[in-house]
Design goal:
disordered N terminus; 239 residues; mainly alpha; single chain
Length: 239
């Protein structure tokens, strides 16, 4: 059965792992041709797909400049994922001249369209000073936007900002709330940082049982530093 353009593009990497070399080449050609036809007609989904083909070097040679061109055309028509990809390319100077202002522009547009990861990356630019002056106030707003939409990485970041007073007044109860939300979604960093707060009674009531539980979870979820605390208090790792 003939596959639609959407299925060919979105399932490309999964499908090719199950096909012979000759079948893969045939599918590659179909994906490229389908994307090219749509892109030439000015369709943003086709431009986005063609950008991905050039970026990853599927059928054609890798060409990040052409990928950026395709993403830019799609982004101009409101394609959110193209905005995100283009912002990343400007942030890294990949296929385009490195430009933090343009990265901010596209991340902001994508964030305004509801893209959570763009909100987090926008916050990172200001929090860590990627090409701009560090500005915790500007970092807080996009972080909180993503956190309130339930994104655990952003919840962890917002929790730490409330704890440290970065861009907001110190508020340990709000720090606990956001770290707790993140920890409940198995974010190891949040489990570790919240565990330390309970361990020390840092702005919240000391609770060794919760500290132990969080440190165990943090370690099992990949936070190696938690092992130091587990060993210090001779807490077993309970799976």
């Amino acid at each position: 059965m003939k596959k639609t353009f959407f299925i060919i593009i979105t399932n490309f990497f999964l499908i090719t792992t199950m096909l012979s070399a000759s079948q893969t080449i045939k599918l590659d050609d179909r994906a490229f041709n389908a994307a090219k036809i749509k892109a030439d007609k000015g369709d943003p989904s086709g431009q986005f797909a063609l950008g991905g083909i050039y970026f990853h070097g599927i059928v054609v040679e890798k060409d990040h400049k052409m990928a950026a061109k395709m993403y830019e055309s799609a982004a101009a028509q409101g394609h959110v994922k193209a905005m995100f990809n283009l912002a990343m390319m400007y942030l890294d100077g990949d296929g385009v001249e490195k430009d933090a202002k343009k990265a901010i522009y596209y991340f902001t547009k994508a964030s305004d369209s509801g893209d959570i990861k763009s909100s987090v990356h926008l916050g990172d630019i200001y929090y860590f000073g990627h090409g701009v002056k560090i500005d915790y106030n500007k970092a807080f707003k996009p972080y909180k936007k993503a956190a309130d939409l339930g994104y655990p990485i952003a919840q962890h970041k917002v929790g730490l900002m409330y704890k440290r007073g970065h861009g907001v007044e110190v508020d340990t109860l709000k720090a606990k709330k956001y770290l707790q939300r993140s920890a409940m979604q198995s974010c190891s960093k949040a489990q570790y940082d919240l565990g330390k707060m309970y361990l020390k009674g840092d702005g919240i009531e000391k609770n060794m049982q919760l500290a132990k539980k969080l440190m165990q979870e943090a370690y099992l979820n990949g936070k190696k530093e938690a092992k130091i605390i587990l060993d210090k208090y001779k807490w077993n790792i309970e799976q």
